[in-house]
Every structure is written in structure tokens, then in C-alpha cells.
Amino acid sequence: MSKNELIMYPFQEELLNKDIIEVTWLGRGGQGAVTASELVAMSAIKEGKNAIAIPEFGAERRGVPVRAYTRVSKELKEIHKTPIVNPDIFVLLDPSLLSKAKNYIDLKDDGVVIANTQLSKDEAIKVMGIKVKEENFFIIDAKSIVMRILGRPIYNTVMVGAFIAIVPIVKLETVLESVRETFKGKLGDLNAQVIEEGYKHFFKK
Fold it and tell me: Radius of gyration of the chain from Cα atoms?
């Protein structure tokens, strides 16, 4: 693991002090949006927080747009199980959904977007068409990472790594433990490597 430091972003303190943090994940069936949501919730619970992962009910065929949701609270209180259409954080797993994202969410005014795309930040913001502060918009070329390590376009774990680097709601070590419990053996090790690559993408250069 590199000794480089993560970048600290101005929005982090206010966001992490919220009673409940709400995340919407958007991908296509077979890309693991639900698993991404579950990994974050599982890791939060391991760290003593209250969290829930909520799958989207409906068509989950491979290739069909699929949403999943995560709610995390520092306090042990009841968390709603309803879909999140007004999230604090929006994570886009599939680049082909960039132009369709505005149909699925209504981002909070100070919301954060983390998008898998090969476009520049300016291009991605324009294509997405969602009102978001430029400093709250993050891009990562997840495809190049997963194809090199996994050999297939499954973006969930690399986007989890990016997510916890930008919004450090849980520790990297906890997520790596969770992913190795979810995926056994070599597959767990590979996905742990993918998470670390997504995480390190946001180190200070």
C-alpha cells in the first residue's frame, strides 16, 4: 500500500457529520450495484454504525439499468428502507448511463457525484445534465482498472474503492475484509486489489 495521502475535500466534514448519509448507485444488471451497496453497509456495521443496503425491486436482467441504495447512520436508530431519489452521493457504475442519470435521481444541492467515465470532468458534467458543483464531481476510468485485473467489465468494487476514498465513511481495511467475506479465495483477492486501485486513484499525486 502506498504511503501517499488521500486528498481532503471541503464537503467531507459537513457530509460526514450528517445524521444519515444516503447513497444511490446506478449501473446495469450484472455489474454489481446491489453488491456495492451491500459492501458499504456491511463495512459500516462492522465499524459500529447503523446501515442498510436496499436493492431496487423490479427487472434485474443483465444489461437493464439497476439502482441500489445505501443509508448509513452513526447512531443506532431506525433507518428507512425506501428508495433514495434525492441522495447525498450518486455513484454511476456504467458510463453508458451518463446521459440518462438525470432520469433516475434528484441530487441534493451539495451532493457528490462519482462517475465511471473516460470523458473529462467538464464533458461528463455536460453530458450528465445534473446540477452539481464542479468540486463535488469526480471521475474515474474504472474500465481500464477492472479489465487489467479482472478481465471483464464488472465495475462495482472499483467504484466502492473510489467512493470510500472520496467519502471516507468507512475504512479501507474494513471494506477489504468485507469483500473477502463476500467473494471467497482468488476472486476475493482480485476484488480486494480492484478496491485498492479505485481507492488509490484519489491519492495526492
Answer: 15
